[in-house]
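FAQ
Q: What does a multi-component entry look like?
A: The components come first, one per line:
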Amino acid sequence: MKNKAYLPLLFLIAFFTTALQAQNPKAKSGTFALTNATIETVTKGVITNGTVLISKGKITAVGTTVTVPQDAEVIDCSGHWIYPGLIDGGTGVGLFEIGQIPQATDASEAGQIIPQMKALTAINPNSAHIPVTRISGVTTVLTIPSGGLFPGTAALINLHGYVPDQMYAGFEGVVLNFPTTGRRGFYDRRTDEEIKKAVEKSLSQINDVWDKAVQYHKLDSATKGKGVTYYPEMQALLPVVRGEGSLLIEVNAANDILEVLKWVKEKKVKKVILTGVMEGWRVAEQIAKAGISVIAGPVQELPSREYDRYDKAYANPGLLKKAGVKVAIRTNDRSRGNSRNLPYHAGFAATYGMGREDALRAVTIIPAEIFGVQDRLGSIEVGKNATLFVSSGDPFETKTQIIHVFIDGWQIPMVSRQTQFYDEFLNREPGAAKN
Amino acid sequence: MKKITMLFLAVLSCGAFAQAQVDRGSMLIKNGTVFTITKGTLENTDVLVRDGKITQVGKNIPAPTGIKIIDASGLFVMPGIIDAHSHIALSSINEGTNAITPEVWTGDVVNPLSISIYRALAGGVTTVHAMHGSANSIGGQCETLKLRYGTVDADVLRMEDAPRTIKFALGENPTGHGRRDGQQPQSRMGVEFVIRQAFSEAKEYMATWETYNKAKLQKGFRGSPPSYNLRLETLADILKGNIIVHCHSYRADEINMLLNVCRDFGIRRIVFQHVNEGFKVAPELAAYGAMASVFSDWWSYKLEVYYSTAYNATILTRNGVTTSINSDDAELMRHLYHEAAKTQKYGGLKDDEALSLITINPARQLGIENRVGSIEAGKEADIAIFKNHPLSIYTIPVLTIVDGIVRFDREKDVDDMRLYIDPKESIDIPTFQEADHTHENCMLGAEETAQNIFDLN
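Then the predicted structure of the entire assembly, as tokens:
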């Protein structure tokens, strides 16, 4: 009988516990010491039994003789590995929620020449794709607008934050979908002649725009920005023309790649990144000679020609690397929500010729360098952003579990809608309905 | 009449299969790590193949004179991979002219020249379920193919005597078609109705024939038989249990709906395809004995797959549902071993469980589990050999064998493996898949909107 006095209290405790559990878990910041780990720094070798110290969003110490401050939360990583967060050099994360539904997609805008359309504007920080992607160790992605010739400006984002400013990872680039002589798919039934004409037309459009942008730059410079009228397309292209901003040129067919190399030289475009580059292996020497970096992918893809060897898409990044091209790897996933598979694209590249070490670099330090954020991302080094993860092993191995993720020092809850479904439905209550 | 039908079918099948010359080979695969799937993993083990069949699995099997020997030392030997959802090697996919079209058959449009067959072999695949598309609620019948690449005879690709299967489809694809065509179904209510209506009509058809067949035995019977209707005949065959239903589905409610329809019409053999929300009704699926064939991790390409989870295969397996992982895609098909490995990340399935998802389980779903899907004496010699563990990212399929014949050998692969070259083709025009589209030729014979791409998945 006496016990009954406690009942209201028990209910109260039960209520609060339930209420707390019902909340979505939040990211946590602070000082963290990840101890006893094998650290694959990417840039400075592998450290066994080491510690990574995280404080105020940065990596403040790395090594085997790190003194752990008293206020640090110690996370024992015995038997586990630490890697820098993986960077997907091209994806649709944040710009599309449900591929087939226009209302749930913000990846493309009307118009052929619209470099002023900014991906960063439309990125949805609350997209269900973000937790799904980051708890697989993919912490940072280049989100690309799609559509016409200049469909907009892509943005590098970290997959944590509540407004785009908190997510912005320090790089934006104007996208140019270079006119392609390839077919868009089996359903593209244009004749060779029609394709040729379409390419010529698009190319002259691009040349016109570029010439205009050069004129605009001259006017703008001469008048110190006061003599030009509002012209958003040109303003977006200004940094590219001036060699301050990057131009991401999407190109895949071998002939088109050669055409791009010619075009870039002719127009004296200074900062160029080639993306896609599915047939890069055919002209790898020429790309290497031009000294232009490549973001290649997807890797898990079919060869682009029926007569090509079956594994050419798997081998492409390795063949490019071998020829001396600086190459990062992307998923280019813009409709299936599987940017999380970046480590597997890299793993396939590793297996089919690139080697594990270079494939790891191709999703960490190399994209960081290509985007000019190597002082912040891409390796485990003191002074860099604490954007990293702890795993049960090699992140390319399919069965490897990602155990902790940190983005800018924030410890990310290891939860997504997909893990929540697992928790709820593995042993559903109630079970089978009676029939 | 039944006799006549049987005779007719027999003549038909003679016509279809008599000339199909299937090559079968013999070999001794020495000293590999053998995943039998059904009887554990055996180290340093040999597999003897005679005339296309596995005759012995064991250690130190003496080599019969003159037999081809494959040294599998350090390699991994597993049953050829089976894809329960494929559209490769078909020259058309959808007969979307009516909500109910069971009278058509993908077996009529098999293209043995498709390079996709070779590329699938290069991913260790030996058998695929060549399915009709998902434009309509009851689509066409499907064909189970063995990847005997090299033949130009479509009949040789058929897996002889494999059970008949048929494609059903629920949800957005058939309702989308209904809306475009201004006919039922345009909602999930309509999908249930058109299926129930079709089976009800088939029952009437069966009853009419039964009445006639009884009546004609009466002395002095005068009258003509009811008219023959292939659509209703096929539906009747489903009701009689002669055809396995493979139903494109995503949402839990529609899966549950079809289970109820099957229960009401006494249909027992049902495999749900895609079944992204199968995890929500896993106990119901298990209780009915329905099976599930799923993607490893595709989601969000349309509304009905937005609430998916990559843990689907694990949840289904743990709830006792016979589950397979499929591709529905010429690219994905090439690394089903990797897709299966994802169940180790998402839910920690054991090696044998993960490998079952692409071997014996899809075999069960196609009704061919007594012939393929495991490495056992008596089974057909469909075998895939890998460098490194097949569930590792670093694995490479090196040898794929169908009926004891090597159909893919990475060592001997030359770049151009086409069987047919169009003299008029332009050699310098590549094809690139758009990032927001799926791969295989689902649009062939269909409309030109991108929407239709998804009549496959």
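Q: Is there any commentary attached?
A: Sometimes. For this entry: Residues 437-454 of chain B have pLDDT under 50 and may be disordered.
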